[in-house]
Specification:
With 140 residues, the protein is α+β, with helices and mostly antiparallel strands. The protein is built from 4 helices and 4 strands. It has helices at 12-28, 56-71, 91-94, 125-139; strands at residues 34-39, 44-49, 105-110, 113-121. Strand 1 (34-39) and strand 2 (44-49) form a beta hairpin. Helix 1 packs across helix 4. The radius of gyration is 15 Å and the shape is globular.
Length: 140
């Protein structure tokens, strides 16, 4: 007989830790960002947009989080998959919900289980990826 252990879901407190850590990393780099945190079901747990972040960063941070969640992978690892010769080339236009294959989305795991995702938008893709990675490392 096997035992199943319940994994604690991503909480509002966890989401606030992620938002704060991502914004702190971005602020130290002098970058204004938007940060989105989604739970395992793709529902919004937290969103914060810096006053001076470009307006589109709110949309990109949310789409990056959604993409990382749905594919359970950092969006930075998926960029090549949607190039014209990539296996996911048509995926962004094949779904109702918009995916975004730009670095800055990171899935969040607890005890090996996917519990949500964080997305950061507003900086260069590599910067956003770094800010999101810094956020997830704070949650451990």
């Amino acid at each position: 007989m096997s035992t199943t252990t319940a994994v604690a879901p991503l909480t509002i407190q966890d989401a606030e830790i992620l938002v704060t850590a991502a914004r702190r990393a971005a602020e130290s780099a002098g970058v204004n960002v938007s940060v989105t945190v989604l739970d395992a079901g793709g529902h919004l747990l937290a969103f914060r947009r810096d006053d001076r972040a470009v307006l589109i960063s709110g949309e990109t941070s949310t789409r990056k989080a959604y993409t990382a969640l749905q594919l359970n992978a950092p969006t930075a690892d998926l960029v090549d998959l949607v190039k014209p010769d990539g296996p996911f080339h048509t995926l962004p236009t094949a779904l109702d919900r918009p995916l975004l294959f730009i670095a800055g989305g990171i899935p969040v795991h607890r005890d090996g289980h996917l519990i949500g995702a964080v997305g950061v938008g507003g900086g260069a893709p590599e910067q956003d990826h770094g800010f999101a990675t810094a956020a997830v490392s704070e949650l451990v």
